[in-house]
């Protein structure tokens, strides 16, 4: 326990901090009562099991916060950690899995800027997007609706992809966002244009014997107006995440998955992944525990690729108008957590999600597949086409292809 401050102002701050901690603990106690009541009122056995897991997660968060409140009186704000940048020519696929994925540490991979699209060094100009997909219709959210839980017909417009692209690049459509649009399902012509970094191409979700709910979800396209944001959230079923930045800069904030309890999580919406408050609320008067959460901040620029560990809360601010593509993935480091959540989601949501659990659970995946120790200065060997990625063929391709 740290020594009691002697300065009157410091003592007042300490009392305010304790009061804020007590308020958060009281809120979690209320959350726990709410979650337990939801279990008691649920007649369906499967949905009841799902809600019992929510109870366990609230209990775990409450326990973590109580332990800190009992042992610490004051603490300086946690220093934000920098995300390491590593050039692809020095990062083998196996080293990436070992040093970053297995340790839950985000990383930015550089050096692939000429390989992310079919246009090579000119990929940032996005001619590939306009020529191959410009006339395709896409649903674009307006007025930042994607972060306000207000998605509806009134908050989205269906427009040509080229119209949306030009509007956001000219700063003529503030608050507009093409968000997480599946390329295989909705923009298949763009699948011929983008290249998946091989660091993520061993995705178990692509190696199943049967199709499932996420077989064709990724890569997905993001085209965002300047100053739009993705609110703090956790991706479902503990999926790891990658993003390849093609144009513009996104400012990322990532928290360690084990520290979600300190971010004022709420499970009242009834999902395994909790709702989280906006980053703008993170101060000692409202978020007493947030300073104990390990945090990384990084600006992701054109040609860079970011890895975000599964289960890690993250938020994004588009500093410029941006174009990027992304995806979730599963491997040996998060398969057990993913299966755990997917089975419960199947019990709660029905047959399609349970079939996804079954498709992943029935396969004995090889954790060494595609984990080449080699490094290379030929960046072309470090990306694969979408048709090689979808269906899992990329994991078995020879490493050097000329």
What does this structure look like?
With 402 residues, the chain is of the alpha+beta class. The chain folds into two domains: 7-70; 81-256 and 294-396, Jelly Rolls, CATH 2.60.120. It contains nine helices and 16 strands. The protein has helices at residues 8-40, 45-71, 93-101, 127-133, 161-169, 183-186, 335-349, 351-361, 386-389, and strands spanning 81-82, 84-87, 107-110, 137-141, 156-160, 177-182, 195-197, 220-224, 229-233, 240-247, 250-255, 295-300, 305-308, 314-318, 322-329, 383-385. It has a seven-stranded mixed sheet. It has a five-stranded mixed sheet with strand order 1-12-11-14-9, with no helix packed on it. A two-stranded antiparallel sheet has the order 4-5. Helix 3 links the parallel strand 2 and strand 3. The longest helix has 33 residues, at 8-40. It is globular, with a radius of gyration of 22 Å. The relative contact order is 0.17.
Assembly context of the chains? single chain
Text of the CATH class of the largest domain: Mainly Beta
Pairing-aware structural class of the strands and helices? alpha+beta
* Number of H/I helices: 9
**Topology pattern, helix = H, strand = E:** HHEEHEHEEHEHEEEEEEEEEHHEH
Strand order, main sheet: write it out. Answer: 2-3-13-10-15-8-6
Low-confidence spans: pLDDT under 50, at least 5 residues? Answer: 149-153
Question: Termini, distance in Å?
Answer: 60 Å
CATH architecture of the largest domain: Sandwich
Assigned CATH superfamily of the largest domain: Cupin
Helical percent range?
A: 25-40%
């Amino acid at each position: 326990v740290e020594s009691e401050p002697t300065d009157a102002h410091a003592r007042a701050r300490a009392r305010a901090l304790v009061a804020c901690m007590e308020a958060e603990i009281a809120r979690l106690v209320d959350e726990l009562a709410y979650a337990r009541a939801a279990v008691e009122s649920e007649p369906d056995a499967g949905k009841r099991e799902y809600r019992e897991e929510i109870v366990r997660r609230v209990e775990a968060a409450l326990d973590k916060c109580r332990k800190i409140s009992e042992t610490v009186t004051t603490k300086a704000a946690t220093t934000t950690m920098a995300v390491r940048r590593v050039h692809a020519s020095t990062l083998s696929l196996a080293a990436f899995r070992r040093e970053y994925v297995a340790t839950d540490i985000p990383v930015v991979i550089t050096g692939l800027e000429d390989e992310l699209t079919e246009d090579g060094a000119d990929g940032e100009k996005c001619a590939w997007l306009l020529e191959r997909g410009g006339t395709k219709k896409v649903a674009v959210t307006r007025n930042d609706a994607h972060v306000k839980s207000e998605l509806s017909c009134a908050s989205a417009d269906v427009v040509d992809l080229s119209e949306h692209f030009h509007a956001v690049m000219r700063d003529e459509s503030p608050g507009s966002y093409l968000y997480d649009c599946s390329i295989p399902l909705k923009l298949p012509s763009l699948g011929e244009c983008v290249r998946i970094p091989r660091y993520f191409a061993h995705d178990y979700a692509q190696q199943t014997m049967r199709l499932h709910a996420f077989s064709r979800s990724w890569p997905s396209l993001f085209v965002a107006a300047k100053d739009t944001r993705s609110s703090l959230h956790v991706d479902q079923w503990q999926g790891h995440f990658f993003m390849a930045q093609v144009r513009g800069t996104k400012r990322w904030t990532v928290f360690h998955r084990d520290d979600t309890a300190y971010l004022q999580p709420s499970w009242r919406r009834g999902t395994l992944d909790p709702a989280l408050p906006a980053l703008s609320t993170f101060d000692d008067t409202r978020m007493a525990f947030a300073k104990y959460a390990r945090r990384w901040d990084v600006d992701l620029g054109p040609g860079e690729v970011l890895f975000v560990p599964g289960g890690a809360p993250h938020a994004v601010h588009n500093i410029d108008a941006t174009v990027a593509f992304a995806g979730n993935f599963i491997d040996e480091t998060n398969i057990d957590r993913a299966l755990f959540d997917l089975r419960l989601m199947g019990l709660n949501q029905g047959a399609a999600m349970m079939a996804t659990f079954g498709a992943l659970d029935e396969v004995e995946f090889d954790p060494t597949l595609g984990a080449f120790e080699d490094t290379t200065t030929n960046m072309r060997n470090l990306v694969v086409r979408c048709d090689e990625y979808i269906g899992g063929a990329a994991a078995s391709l020879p490493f050097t292809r000329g």
